[in-house]
Amino acid sequence: MTELESQPLHFQTISQIVRQTKSGALSAERLTQYMLDRITSRDETLKSYVRVLNESALQQARALDDMQRRGDRLGALHGVPIAIKDLLFTQGVETASGTRVMADFVPDYDATVVSRLREAGAVIIGKTQLTEGAFGAHHPSIDPPKNPWNTAYWPGVSSSGSGAAVAAGLAFGALGSDTGGSIRFPSASCGLVGLKPTYGRVSRYGAFALAHSLDHIGPMTRSVEDAARMLGVIAGADANDSSALDVPVPNYLQFLQGSLRNTRIGVDWSYVREGVAPEIVATVERACQQFEASGVQIKEVTMPSEYRLLVDGWGVTCAVECAQAHADLYPAHKALYGPVLAGLLEMGRAVASSEYQALQVLRDTFRAKLDRLFEDVDVMIFPNMTGPVPTVAQMDSVVAEDDSRAAFINFTAPSDYSGHPTLTLPAGLDAQGLPLSFQLMGKSLHEQQLITLGSAYEHVQGTMPHPPD
User: Fold this and answer.
1) Predicted confidence (pLDDT) at residue 2 exceeds the cutoff of 60
2) Strands 264-267 and 379-382: what pairing?
3) What pTM value is reported for the model?
4) Would you place residue 398 in the very low, low, confident or very high pLDDT band (cuts 50, 70, 90)?
5) How many CB atoms lie under 10 A from the CB of residue 339?
6) Neighbours of 91 (CB within 10 A)
7) Which of 11, 165, 291, 400 is the most buried if burial means most Cβ atoms within 10 Å?
8) CATH classification of 3-461 is 3.90.1300.10, yes or no?
9) Candidate list 158, 160, 203, 444, residue with the active-site label
10) Any catalytic annotation for residue 160?
11) Catalytic residue among 182, 189, 203, 444
């Protein structure tokens, strides 16, 4: 049995699928119809999609098959069904951003990342559900996505639908966004690779903002190679986004087999261990041991202490910028908002500008200290969360309490403030059969080093199992 025949089609990697579509062994139309049928049969339970694009997806797939018959150049994602978070604009298709207030909003253009996926041959198969406005809770009228490993457990936020769809084999990859951990939480909870790029590495044009200075867009996939492939497609300068960095985009796939020689991973054990469940600490310890066995040097470092104040202040920064993003909608249409997002917006409208600006100064100090730390190490390693994947009920309590919410983003908010890239890696299953994970944080614009390390870890760790099908 070949590698491609050894697992169901829907759980194969993007790279496996591309080899089949480009060789002609699998047509884009046949693959798309297969995935649409699977979504129909499975997503009534999982609720990962807010909108499945049946007709347009099949039209895209047929056009791609026509290109192949003509002998046209085929893109890096030729024929691959990809899902996108429903805060990314899609021309002529509703983009609700998890809200009721925007339920009828139909953009007249595609987000830059959506255009780039199409140009690379991806089939946009559907738009995934998210929390209201990409904040901490789903709108009360929405039945939230379910974790395919166990529906009683949290699928992560805010890219909850993207995580559930990819983990369940309802898409081969998805785009998420990360403002306080929203690529990393669903990737960790659903057993996926999640790549949060450097701030500005990927254009945010055509993405409805949660907090413009914190928002990052990146891929969520089932392998490091797939994340590298997707990042290579969506990254790069954009004249429509002044924050998009005008720097060359490397071929990230070339770094999958990169050398680990002289690579140094920094770890602040007090940061990793303080208030963290033993099984999560043990996951990071095992990862360090595996990296050491591969020739990587593990070096103890100290996380800049400003991270604590930034974690505590994240809600202030997010609230002020979110209120700016919703200024045309709130409070004019307050009745259409759920209580969690409305509470954030009220907070943002009340925050003194001096408090917001003080956090901006603090983030600059923190970023500068992190950059100096990265003169001594190449990458840092942390957990994603302080404990194992929580139940839905446990997370309802966290969302309701400001103190609990701040503690929960202890390992995610700092790099959203600093803009450094991170890579979330699945690390097997815990005693309850739920995913374990950890994250690596790299130097700005050094995603390729994260990809090299992630690929090496993946090779040693072995293939992550899939949820019950």
Assistant:
1) no
2) parallel
3) 0.97
4) confident
5) 12
6) 14
7) 165
8) yes
9) 158
10) no
11) 182
